[in-house]
Amino acid sequence: MLARELHIAEEFPRVSLDRWRGLVEADLAGAGGGEAKGLFERKLVTHTYEGVYIQPLYTELEWDSSAGQTGCSGSSPWVRGSVPLGTAVDGWDIRQEHGWADPAEFNARMLEDLNGGVTSVLLRMDAAGRAGLDADDPEAAKLVGVDGCTLSSGAEWDRAFAGVHVGMIGVTLEAGAAFVAGAAQLMALWERAGLEAVRARGAFNADPLAALARDGTVPIAIDGLLHQMGDLAAFTSARYPLVTSVRVGTAAYHHAGATATQDLAFAMASGVEYLRFLTGAGLSVDAASRQMLFSMAVGCHFFLAIAKLRAARRMWGRVVEKCGGTLGAAGMRLHVRTSKRVLTHRDPWVNILRNAACVFAAGVGGAEAIGSEPFDGVLGPASELGRRVARNTQHMLMEEAHLHRVCDPAGGSHYLESLTEELADAAWVIFRDIERRGGMLACLKSGWVQEQIDASYRTRAKNIATVKDQVLGVSAFANLLERLPTPKIVDLDRVRVEAVRRLGDHRSASSRDRVGQRDFGDGASLTAAAVDAARRGATIGEISRRVFGTGVPLALSAGPLAVHPYAEPFERLRDAADGLAEECGRRPIAALLTLGSAAEHGARAGYARNFFQAGGFEVRSAMSVSQAAGAGIVVICGSDAQYAEGQAERAAAELRAAGVRTVVLAGQPGSREGAYRAAGIDRFIFVKCDVVRTLTELLSEEGATI
Hints:
The chain has about 700 residues and is of the alpha/beta class. Helices cover about 45% and strands about 10% of the residues. The longest helix is centred in the middle third of the chain and has 23 residues, at about 415-435.
């Protein structure tokens, strides 16, 4: 007997979108006890910071799959992936960032990661190296070991990579403005390891615009850095087929508060700016495009992050096409990292979940290389546990969840396909505006980019301050009893002294003619001369002095882009409360005076408890005025009915008589504000009030320094 086939679509009548919406609006009207007009949009439609309206339901009406807009993986319009099969065969590249100040520590931590399954490393040079300064340069006194590894000489690079089979991994750089000197040292390292140029894998990551945006200044005129980038790209293109020389990085904009559409537009505008200089250096559009690696950061809103990555590939494919490139060069190479603006110092264990969400989005979005953040990395040098969890998050998503086995898992989702198109269209409008204003460099110099980011972040900052946007463990459900991990303390003075000593030994042992006699001028390859100097033992500073010449530094009038972690305003309050507790021997206290039964006061008491704990207050419950009177701040918590009966005014008068300094009412004052204030109530806390401002004022009254 043949089994009966089940055809779900035929079993149920088709329901139109209009009928569905009518039923929803009727339910909303019933729940609200009134008219349904406007309730659908207010309750069910989400408005994002990008200006996109997220609907509660998506159907084929929003995205017609039969039109074939997304094509196939590895083909135009590149939404589904830049290469055929994507990462389905070998998985994505697990690329971990390393920036330990001491090269020996750097080496030990990198070997731990490589033995744990990491497939490439991102080497972050310290602030001195990124500025093109040696450890013994007087100008580098406060920069050595800061935010990266101290790698002045080739001997230091050998120390950092001791025991590492560089032919088996990819090595990528964060060298700031000193990208030519950094690339020269890496190429010299490869040569000393006996690695053929055709087998070397990595990225030199020359990114002058990002360096200018992040630091606010560069050692020479930006045009000079862009020409150096072109020289490096031409040199790399001719000799290193598996290495990219240019990075189009948008992390500086993202961490400053840029929206997804701004992030996309800045990436496209920077990419076009770089294309112009690379083709000016003699590369074809195809060769120039193949020299570029795009690097983006993504946050915890993983649907938005997935759509952003898919939109980025679509937009870049269109850019290359419009610039005259062929289909084979239009596929974007994409490195994605966890956003630093979503990570928190407080309750850092939640960062494990945040990082997992970001890595998940990057994997589903089709990134070729993904960087994972240790949960305690924001506190200082990441612990062994933090690094292990970070890399194993990626292993789990590939080896256990098999996330990489499907090309474009988001493909076909009406919601994600529609969101991808909306982000791409909105970002293209911003990109065209940038081009009309003279391009990305001109917009950075004029301060326009900074103004756009600041304008968009103001709305987000307001929502963070009012806790409309919550940060778990910080602005919501804060744990005042947490014991934070203790990061390893790095003695930068010792790091600098030892680095200077080793650099002196290197200078004594190497040839005096370390830089060599090759021409560093316009008539020869700047990169070739730098590599020759690195072979001779020249240091980062010696190479950079010749590369930079006598150029005049450029500083942005608007200054560097400031990083805006979401948790920052609340963590500043917690720091102030902790400082007060250390000074006085106790935390600032807020007592909750609850009226009536738990059913009557429960909701507002819970809100008030969260409210004050987010500011570092110790919160105590009180059933009577006498129990609450010992606190400097007392919060009256009850129901609207109790307030209407005058219970709040009577409680406030008793609290004042008992000597309480500040009386707070949990609830909107409405038309009774005058009566409340006359009874002695000073402040009101309620949903959508400015939590940060209120807590700042209350902590200041307690004597805290903010």
